[in-house]
Specification:
Layout: H1 16-21, H2 28-35, H3 43-50, H4 55-67, E1 71-76, E2 82-87, H5 89-122, H6 127-130
Antiparallel strand pairs: 1-2
């Protein structure tokens, strides 16, 4: 899936492509990463910037992003305690590279995508119901 010419590797369960695409399987992960693009933030600031995310989901998301090396946690030695989350260099490379490209694509093609999804939702799910009588497959 790249333009890189070299040894070809099969995409297996633990390949690099799967690891990269898994970053987008959790709905809130890209949202939190995008919210951290402007710089480190505290949890409360993240929840306010994002809106609509529960505290539990934010906690789970931050843990997943920390474990993936995309976000770091900085606890300041002061009273009251202050903790900030920020992008690591790996996280910044994801936000500034593929996520930025995906954002451009979404702006350019988002209306087409939404229209296709709306059209699909209006279609009956039984393929036999949409075919003409001449092309219907007999049911036995």
């Amino acid at each position: 899936m790249t333009d890189h010419e070299g040894p070809r590797h099969e995409c297996v369960a633990d390949c690099r492509l799967r690891a990269a695409t898994d970053l987008f399987t959790h709905t809130w992960d890209p949202v939190v990463l995008a919210a951290l693009r402007a710089g480190p933030r505290r949890r409360r600031e993240l929840r306010t910037a994002i809106g609509g995310i529960s505290d539990k989901v934010l906690t789970d998301t931050l843990r997943r992003l920390l474990a993936g090396g995309l976000v770091d946690r900085h606890a300041h030695a002061e009273a009251p305690p202050r903790v900030e989350y920020g992008l690591t260099s790996l996280g910044r490379s994801l936000v500034e590279g593929p996520m930025r490209a995906l954002g451009r694509w979404a702006v350019e093609h988002g209306d087409e995508l939404l229209e296709a999804q709306e059209n699909a939702a209006r279609r009956p799910t039984d393929p036999a119901a949409t075919s003409s009588p001449a092309t219907r497959v007999p049911r036995g």
